[in-house]
């Protein structure tokens, strides 16, 4: 695991002496005049942007790190997703397909949706939030035959019309030769990440033009699953596809999305030649190559597995208008997302014998605003066994090293629960990493290996009548593969409701952890539960599965 750094920005204040009020007033007038001039200049710049990025703009933008770019329109309280619907111009079937997509998926009656052109015009004219959560544009390669398939030169990134001289207001014309596999997606991310930073987008999505989406379900998914900036670093998601040749899990090209920082990394920090060199297949494969680009990032990627989420359809028959309309009408009348898509959440990532997954929380019956724990809290279950000398001894030297009491920001689960229970003033508990040794404590012949009955989940001691203060004794027969992990998650998620825990981790007792690096990783990479989610008339569960990809 690389070393993670936490960057902070300090703010300073200026105190003004009461005796210098006149000078203060004069200074305020000068500042007001300067701000007015800046506003005028910014409006002029925005109006000339006109969906093109000039060579000079790109050069100025790329001279500074991405994290230092100004976000002029950071007025969005909910996540905003910019969708690029990949299309082609000058071919009748694709021109016609855009027409019936406008009548279905992106029709003007859809609440919370607008075109990219409408969104930019609203912001430029009113300097206010456009109100759209889902912003779409058709993405077309509009360059002549002498243009490259992946934008890597100093020419403008977009054009005002296609190669036939035609222009549609809800289309973005990339200044590359039209293609599917050889750079169109990366060029789209390059453009989308640049305007996204300026106009307040949180995610960039790519969909095929035969992918059937419905806006209400997409809005629900966005609100419940996609945190906004700054909680969305390096998030990548879609329907998962495994690749044996690339040894990776990538998102299928029918629909995938990523946070804005990843879009910038792929489109701007990687060069066109970098992307060619990274391809793992004998020929370009758009979605597999995109996964390769993303996983080349030096920091961990959070993969959001959308398997069976049910917010889109992509089948061969949806290439035909009749079938597309039928699928859209069918999906439009469905009542939201599945309540509990079990199969989506069965896959857990494994990395160096460590699992982690966010807890499940009930959006109706539990207050997930977590007033006690303001920082992300991770509960680590260190899997052990009792009654065997080597495991008993291993716990002893783990206490002297990884979880020794001198480690800052760490405490045992039992200590943490006691402090929360006796926290009458409601102040924040300073433990960010909470650990416990997890032991199957029941009699070998009387209890199952996976807890599924009405018996208590835990015991006060192991089967040998021994008890250690920092151990959790599960009421199951000791085992490694048959159900101990599931029983641990069952117990940990239940106490997580009550004690403000955000993530649950499992580690083997021969996994070496260093707490300072783990604390830093938690602060940098694992957002807490920051929102109090509400639902209407029905009980729903919110899920977030973070897959450790590196």
From TrEMBL:
Identify the keywords attached in UniProt to this record, alphabetized.
Glycosyltransferase, Golgi apparatus, Membrane, Signal-anchor, Transferase, Transmembrane, Transmembrane helix
Signal peptide (from-to) = none
Q: Which domain of life is it from?
A: Eukaryota
Q: How does it sit in the membrane?
A: Single-pass type II membrane protein
InterPro entries for this protein: Glyco_trans_31 (IPR002659)
Q: What is its main location?
A: Golgi
What are the transmembrane regions? none
Compartment annotation = Golgi apparatus membrane
Q: Which GO terms describe its cellular component?
A: Golgi membrane
GO MF terms, alphabetically ordered? hexosyltransferase activity
PANTHER family assigned to the protein according to its UniProt record, in alphabetical order: BETA-1,3-GALACTOSYLTRANSFERASE PVG3, BETA-1,3-N-ACETYLGLUCOSAMINYLTRANSFERASE
Q: Which family does it belong to?
A: Belongs to the glycosyltransferase 31 family.
Specify the protein name. Answer: Hexosyltransferase
- The species this protein belongs to is Chaetoceros tenuissimus
- What's the source species' lineage? Eukaryota, Sar, Stramenopiles, Ochrophyta, Bacillariophyta
């Amino acid at each position: 695991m690389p070393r993670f750094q936490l960057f902070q920005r300090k703010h300073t204040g200026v105190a003004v002496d009461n005796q210098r009020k006149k000078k203060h007033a004069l200074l305020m007038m000068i500042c007001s005049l300067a701000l007015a001039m800046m506003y005028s200049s910014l409006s002029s710049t925005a109006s000339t942007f006109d969906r093109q990025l000039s060579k000079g703009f790109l050069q100025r933008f790329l001279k500074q790190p991405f994290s230092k770019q100004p976000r002029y329109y950071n007025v969005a309280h909910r996540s905003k997703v910019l969708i690029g619907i990949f299309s082609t111009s000058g071919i009748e079937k694709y021109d016609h397909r855009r027409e019936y997509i406008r009548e279905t998926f992106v029709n003007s009656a859809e609440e919370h949706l607008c075109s990219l052109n409408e969104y930019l015009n609203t912001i430029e004219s009113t300097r206010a939030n456009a109100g759209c959560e889902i912003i779409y544009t058709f993405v077309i390669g509009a360059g002549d035959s002498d243009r490259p398939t992946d934008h890597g030169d100093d020419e403008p990134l977009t054009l005002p019309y296609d190669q036939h001289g035609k222009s549609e207001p809800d289309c973005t014309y990339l200044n590359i030769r039209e293609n599917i596999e050889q750079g169109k997606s990366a060029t789209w991310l390059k453009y989308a990440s640049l305007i996204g930073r300026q106009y307040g987008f949180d995610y960039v999505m790519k969909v095929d033009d035969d992918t059937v989406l419905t806006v209400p379900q997409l809005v629900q998914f966005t609100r419940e699953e996609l945190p906004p900036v700054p909680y969305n670093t390096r998030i990548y998601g879609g329907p998962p596809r495994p690749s044996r040749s690339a040894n990776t899990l990538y998102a299928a090209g029918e629909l995938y999305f990523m946070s804005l920082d990843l879009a910038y990394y792929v489109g701007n920090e990687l060069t066109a030649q970098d992307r060619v060199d990274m391809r793992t297949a004998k020929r370009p494969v758009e979605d597999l190559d995109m996964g390769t680009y993303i996983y080349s990032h030096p920091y961990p990627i959070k993969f959001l597995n959308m398997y069976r989420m049910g917010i889109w359809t992509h089948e061969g028959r949806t290439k035909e208008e009749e079938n597309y309309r039928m699928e859209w009408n069918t999906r439009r009348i469905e009542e939201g997302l599945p309540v509990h898509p079990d199969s989506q959440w069965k896959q857990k990532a494994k990395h160096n014998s460590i699992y982690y997954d966010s807890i499940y929380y009930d959006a109706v019956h539990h207050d997930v605003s977590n007033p006690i724990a303001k920082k992300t809290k991770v509960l680590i279950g260190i899997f052990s066994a009792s009654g065997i000398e080597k495991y008993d001894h291993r716990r002893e030297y783990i206490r002297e090293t990884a979880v020794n009491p001198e480690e800052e920001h760490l405490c045992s689960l039992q200590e943490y629960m006691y402090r929360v229970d006796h926290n009458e003033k409601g102040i924040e508990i300073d433990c960010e990493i909470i650990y416990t040794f997890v032991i199957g404590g029941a009699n070998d012949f009387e209890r199952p290996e996976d807890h599924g009955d009405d018996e208590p989940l835990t015991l006060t001691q192991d089967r040998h009548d021994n008890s250690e203060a920092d151990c959790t004794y599960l009421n199951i027969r000791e085992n490694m593969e048959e159900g101990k992990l599931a029983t641990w998650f069952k117990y940990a998620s239940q106490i997580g409701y009550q004690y403000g825990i955000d993530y649950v981790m499992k580690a083997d007792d021969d996994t070496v952890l260093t707490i300072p690096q783990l604390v830093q990783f938690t602060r940098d990479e694992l957002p807490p539960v920051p929102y109090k989610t509400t639902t209407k008339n029905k009980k729903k569960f919110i899920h977030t599965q973070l897959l450790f990809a590196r």
